[in-house]
């Protein structure tokens, strides 16, 4: 068994993080690089990815790619695997929230939300699992949400995908954990990111959300560091198929 100080180590592991150009995906990619992993960041915006790579250091690589392009995921896996080898850790942080009310949801808005938030995590994982099986070790981290279990205004498509992520995570665990590949999800509360800009642009609303937590504040990027390192390392060897809410106790009240 690893020494306690080594349990959370990701040193020498190869990680792929989607949505690495901004928000919590960028934070996840940076934290893993700082912890000693070799990290490939994936996102659509090449310029923002380059900024992340300059910040995160030499043990990183950037691949500009739209993970909702299902037909090209095989090409993405090849590109991601070139600099450091096939990933041991896969974090699905890419996501979209169209914020369309139920009466105004369009087929286009619905389809792009399901494609990016739910389909991409499965099909990209499916492409990467074979190399994890060969190693007998892997970690898949999905991104759930407060809307995994709560209904918010303007969130019917987004909430449907995030509820789906919870079941997807359990099904991934059932299918792949016998091969040493653990699948879990983190469920962030209200963190100030591009995706939640509309919430934080309203100070009264942001304060109201903070008041609904047990700890009395909204999330800071560093609040995600510990949970991610736990789920990406040997510390979570016997944890799979779970959704870990990182929400300051919002869902406990």
Automatic annotation (TrEMBL):
Q: Which Pfam families match?
A: adh_short_C2
Please report the name of this protein according to its UniProt entry: Gluconate 5-dehydrogenase
Q: Which family does it belong to?
A: Belongs to the short-chain dehydrogenases/reductases (SDR) family.
The organism's place on the tree of life at top rank: Bacteria
């Amino acid at each position: 068994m690893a020494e306690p100080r080594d349990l959370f180590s990701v040193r020498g592991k190869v990680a792929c993080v989607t949505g690495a150009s901004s928000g919590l995906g960028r934070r996840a990619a940076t934290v893993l690089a700082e912890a000693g992993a070799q990290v490939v960041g994936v996102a659509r915006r090449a310029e923002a990815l380059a900024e992340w790579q300059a910040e995160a250091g030499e043990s990183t690589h950037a691949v500009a790619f739209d993970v909702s392009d299902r037909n090209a995921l095989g090409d993405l896996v090849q590109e991601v695997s070139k600099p450091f080898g096939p990933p041991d850790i896969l974090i699905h942080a890419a996501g979209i929230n169209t914020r369309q009310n139920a009466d105004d949801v369009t087929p286009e808005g619905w389809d792009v939300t399901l494609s990016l938030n739910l389909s991409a995590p499965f099909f990209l994982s499916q492409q990467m699992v074979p190399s994890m099986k060969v190693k007998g070790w892997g970690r898949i981290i999905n991104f759930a949400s407060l809307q995994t279990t709560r209904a918010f205004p303007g969130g019917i498509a987004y909430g449907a995908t995030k509820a789906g992520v919870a079941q997807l995570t359990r099904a991934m665990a059932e299918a792949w954990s016998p091969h040493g590949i653990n699948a879990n999800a983190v469920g962030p509360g209200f963190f100030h990111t591009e995706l939640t800009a509309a919430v934080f642009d309203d100070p009264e609303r942001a304060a109201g959300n903070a008041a609904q937590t047990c700890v009395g504040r909204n999330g800071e990027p560093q609040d995600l560091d510990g949970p991610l390192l736990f789920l990406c390392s040997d510390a979570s060897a016997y944890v799979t198929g779970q959704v870990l809410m990182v929400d300051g106790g919002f869902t406990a009240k």
